[in-house]
Amino acid sequence: SLERDGLTDRDLAIVCSSHRGSVEQARQVFSILWRCDIDPQELQCPLPSGSQSRLQHTCSGKHAGMLAVSKQNHWSVSTYLKRSHPVQQLILRKFSELLAMPGEEFIVAQDDCGAPTYSMQLGHMASLYAKLASGDNLALERIVRAMTYHPTMVAGKGAFDTELMRLTEGELVSKAGSEGIQCIGRIGEGMGLAIKVTDGARRAKYAVAIHLLRQMGWITPSVAETLAEQFMLLGTYKRLEVEGELIML
Fold first, then answer.
1. How far apart are the C-alpha atoms of 170 and 187, rounded to whole Å?
2. 3-state helix, strand, coil in the chain (%, to 5)
3. Which of 186, 237, 181, 184 is nearest to 204 (CA)?
4. Under DSSP, is residue 4 helix (H, G, I), strand (E, B) or coil?
């Protein structure tokens, strides 16, 4: 439905993002709102610390996407975060369809950004990314294209998701979550990977992701080395080693 207002793949990438709030990213979010004739004041994500604009919130792209769909369908834009709002019911319905689960089985909570969020098992997360990467329908195919063609919009320069998608050049789609979540799909092969670090440590999940991707042959040794240099170094000479329990679902 985002195509109705001429929104681009670059717009869709920022809608899928957890971005760093750069000027470029904030402008992209504003561009979506402007073309849909939505006042930026309608954004209900929190104001980031030290910022003067909600456009710079890490989830502002997602909120702009929900507002755009609401505006296109003539739904209220002032109540778009309520669980009963049509846009939230649409999101829940899509999750239900992709996982073949009744909507009432989902546990609904509230994300830090104010939007409803859904608790699910790691296996379900991996399944969703396998479906996303498979390109089974045009909508999923376009999402993957948007994220992999515009990885800087998805996270930001130097961020794990951005660097992984940039280095693998359209082979992997990647998206981090809070509290130690990392999901990756292998494009065109219907394979998904979901990682959860129990204590929520971000640095640990990157080390685990690099280790698993190399072990499964999803990245080359040179890509693994480049990522390790960026995300596994503790200091000039020390590198994180993967230890502990890896649970494969």
1. 7
2. 50, 10, 40
3. 181
4. helix
CB 165 within 8 A of CB 147: yes
Q: Give the separation between CA 194 and CA 176, rounded to whole angstroms.
A: 10
Measured at the alpha carbon of residue 77, what is the angle toward residues 76 and 83, in degrees to the nearest 5?
75
- H/E element holding 107? strand 107-110
Average pLDDT over residues 70-83: 97
Contact 79, 52 (CB under 8 A): no
- Sorted by where each begins, the domain ranges of the chain are 1-87, 121-249
Element (H, E) at 14: helix 9-15
Give 21's contacts (C-beta < 8 A, 6+ positions apart). Answer: 48, 51, 55, 56, 57, 58, 60
**DSSP string of 127-146, one letter each residue:** HHHHHHHHT-SHHHHHHHHH
Condensed to tens digits (0 to 9), the pLDDT of residues 78-134 reads: 999 999 999 999 999 999 999 999 989 999 999 999 999 998 999 999 999 999 999
- Per-residue DSSP letter, 7: -
pTM of the model: 0.91
Nearest 5°: phi and psi at 184?
-140, 140
What is the distance between the alpha carbons of residues 22 and 176, in angstroms, rounded to a whole number? 18
How would residue 246 be classed by pLDDT, with cut points 50, 70 and 90? low
Q: Residue 31 CB: number of other CB atoms within 10 A? A: 16
Q: What is the C-alpha separation between 45 and 56, in angstroms, rounded? A: 10
13 within 8 A of 154, measured Cβ to Cβ? yes
Q: How far apart are CA 57 and CA 121, in angstroms?
A: 27
Q: Which of 81, 121, 85, 83 has the alpha carbon at shortest distance from 101?
A: 121
